Amino acid sequence: MSKMNLTRRGVLKTGAIAGAGVAAPTIFTAQSAAAFTNEPTGSSVTLGFNVPQTGPYADEGADELRAYELAVEHLNGGGDGGLMNTFSSKALQGNGIMGKKVEYVTGDTQTKSDAARASARSMIEKDGAVMITGGSSSGVAVAVQALCQEAGVIFMAGLTHSNDTTGKDKKANGFRHFFNSYMSGAALAPILANNYGTDRKAYHLTADYNWGYTTEEAVRTSTEAMGWETVAAVKTPLTQTDFSSYIAPVLQSGADVLVLNHYGGNMVNSLTNAVQFGLRDKLVNNKNFEIVVPLYSRLMAKGAGANVKGIFGSTNWHWSLQDEGSKAFVKSFGTKYGFPPSQAAHTCYVQAMLYADAVERAGSFNPCAVAEALEGFEFDGMGNGPTLYRAEDHQCFKDVLVVKGKENPTSEFDLLEIVEVTPVSQVTYDASIFGGELGSCNPGA
Amino acid sequence: MFGLDKKDFRLLLLVAVLVVLAPFLLNPFPEGSAMAQFNAGYPDLMQRFVIFGIFAIGFNILFGLTGYLSFGHAAFLGVGSYAAIWMMKLLTMNVIPAIFVSVIVAGIFSLAVGWISLRRSGIYFSILTLAFAQMSYSLAYSVLTPITGGETGLQPKVTDPRILDGTLANGATPKANLFGLEMGSSFEWSVGGWLFTFNAGYYVAAIVMLVAFYMSIRIFRSPFGMMLRAVKSNQQRLNYTGLNAKPYTLAAFVISGMYAGLAGGLMVAMDTQVGAERMFWTASGEVVLMSILGGVGTLIGPVLGAGAIKYMENILSKINKEILHQWFAFMPDGIEDILVSLVYPFIGKGWHLTLGIIFMLVVIFLPGGLVEGGQRVARLFKRKKPAEDGPDGKTTPAE
After folding, report:
1. Under a CB-based contact definition with an 8 Å cutoff, are residues A416 and A405 in contact?
2. Adjacency order of strands within the sheet including A387-389
3. What is the mean pLDDT of residues B339-367?
């Protein structure tokens, strides 16, 4: 079946082609003249908004995109200026970033790291985006953050709560405004001790992936420090929709608190199951049975409906906050879209603003200059009170909200009430406890 | 040449030319023009075209030739990727060992899966492979977190051992390379308004793809390929002639698993990261779609299908409402809004809908896939009736 006809001419030809093939790669060593990746040279600058538009977190993604569009409008001088009026740094003028009009491209992460990276790479390679932001899960955030580090652009994380993003997977080009599992645990534990006593027995149901692990770990450590006992910690598959088989053993275990380390649809289903089983009406060890949800969001509370009443959890930001920044943001978001923003929208909007402000202050789009401007940056007026962007791990430190499901909601958005604003000093931790290497910033090119 | 007949050699040459000139062909519109949105000639997407081309070529060896529909091929892609990333973490950032090991590991894994799954045929075989793939996905996502990194996946870190590489310069990040040639490095050529990007990683992947394509032609034309076609057309008759079909199907299964592993290894070489989603059943379904869309059992079809799907996923999904408004800005306001709201469901996050419609149209009107479409168009322009199909790779029933 195979025949080889070697002729002198054929051999020469093949040799010539092979030689050309070997020589070809040398042209790739040519370096471009730009000082850093995607240096904006025209009258506009492109930002990449990479959010989940399909998949389990599409709701959050849609809200994030709304927030980004609002941020771009404000940066370019449109609308009412939003948080630019309350922001403690006054570098932003409403004339774009450093006089360049802000343009943006959008992409769909599909809540998959591969798709998110493909979309981010196309923004960097094709559209010339100088900053990537967004995302609604930690896996995606970690993957895109690493990509941005390699490519030499800044990554401003969106909604990502796992410790890993600024812990063991932290990167010099990546920044996170959102809080993390550790802070949730630290903020929740004292409230739980005050309300439920210090001699409780907790039973954990944990979503079987990284975020679940870090959240369980954080809540466990901080509640055990208060004197609680952990009876059992059971992992549930991420794709589980019916949790009845996991709820039934809870009562037999002698536990009197159930901690649901679940997010999004998982939490909606597990909480609904638990309430339907009548757990909350039970009396165990002469105490009322209680349920705790470490990470809350308004969208989740909406999904779980009346079941969230009286259940404690933590959140990064809530629209009912009464400081100037929050009020300004709720007002401009509400005017444009007709309903209050979610915490995902808030963190994304703030991240876009912080980036723009850092560029103005640094006087350059160079990722290294921007990173330097963000590191150790202290600001206020963005809705979370005084906030520090810690230089060691690029994590924001600010007050954490402990919330609880409202007993008498007045509207479909008024589902959570703020129980306490845990001061930042109580949730601050040492930057080295999660390991990981920040590395040094990479400007690309 | 290369043991191919004239027609196959022409096909190989055509593919080679297309692949080499892809940076030009995929960037037909000048930078900054309204149509630049449709340019696909940037490194990431070009790499994806050829890598998923390899994946689909391999899948087609199993599905196109033997008719066994595997619904779990993404598992081999994922296993290959994990093997490759571990090579990069432990051994060296050079892509050669990573790709080599990914093929071997995927081959061993597919041997195990195939050994069990091939006890059944038809829908039972598909379900078995699907079950294996979902098992692999769940394991990678949670139970095997120490090896796979779980949800966050794996990436090369500065602190990894990498025993063959010297220590990195201070502040440098590990980058995939081929004897020093970084996969991410590109040469940009600006001509007039056009910008063409020649990426090292793309050409490495392209060479691998051409080799894979050549091997697939040889398999299609070999007596072994003929046996596989016999399995497809009537396995019972084959058994009655005293032949055991199992070794042939198993060999085809392992070969296509190795192709998938090769694609997985290349994905890591181009973009040094692995996530478990790569093994999810939708990823397995995608390669089935690619093959059917392009033309099952044809040589070039799966590559075309892979290109079409990846193009839609990466280009259509990035068109948003703002861009639509720009396109239709010349229209009066009312009509502009109507047009935008008509088109909007099919772009951006609606790209799945567009893909679904195209898939349905192809299956209903062009059962042979895009290749059949091409043949019909070619027939229109040919004066005399072309010679009968013969060994052009089209699957013709044996009876």
Report:
1. yes
2. A378-379, A387-389, A396-397
3. 88
Whole-angstrom Cα Rg for chain B = 22
Count Cβ atoms below 10 Å from residue A231 Cβ, excluding itself: 16
Q: Do A439 and B158 touch (CB under 8 A)?
A: yes
A309-356 pLDDT, tens digit per residue, is: 889 999 999 998 999 999 999 999 999 999 999 999 999 999 999 999
The tens digit of pLDDT for each residue in B70-126 reads 999 999 999 999 999 999 999 999 999 999 999 999 999 999 999 999 999 889 999
User: What mean pLDDT value characterizes chain B?
Assistant: 89
> Pick from B141, B223, B273: which is nearest to A117 by CB?
B273
- The verdict on a CB contact (< 8 Å) between A106 and B185 is no
- Which CATH superfamily hosts domain A182-315? Response regulator (3.40.50.2300)
Residues 6+ apart with CB under 8 A from A123: A46, A48, A50, A105, A107, A129, A132
Extents of the domains making up chain A: 44-179+319-398, 182-315
Cβ–Cβ contact A3 with B under 8 A: yes
Per-residue pLDDT at A1: 45
Rounded Cα distance between A91 and A84, Å, is: 9
Please enumerate in sequence order all residues whose Cβ is within 8 A of that of A233, keeping only pairs 6 or more positions apart, or say none.
A203, A204, A206, A216, A220
**CB-CB neighbours of B31 under 10 Å:** 14
Domains of chain B: 6-279 (1.10.3470)
Q: Does B181 touch chain A (CB under 8 A)?
A: yes
Across the interface, whether the CB atoms of B273 and A115 are under 8 A apart is answered no
A28 pLDDT band, cuts 50/70/90, is very low
CATH topology of domain A44-179+319-398: Rossmann fold (3.40.50)
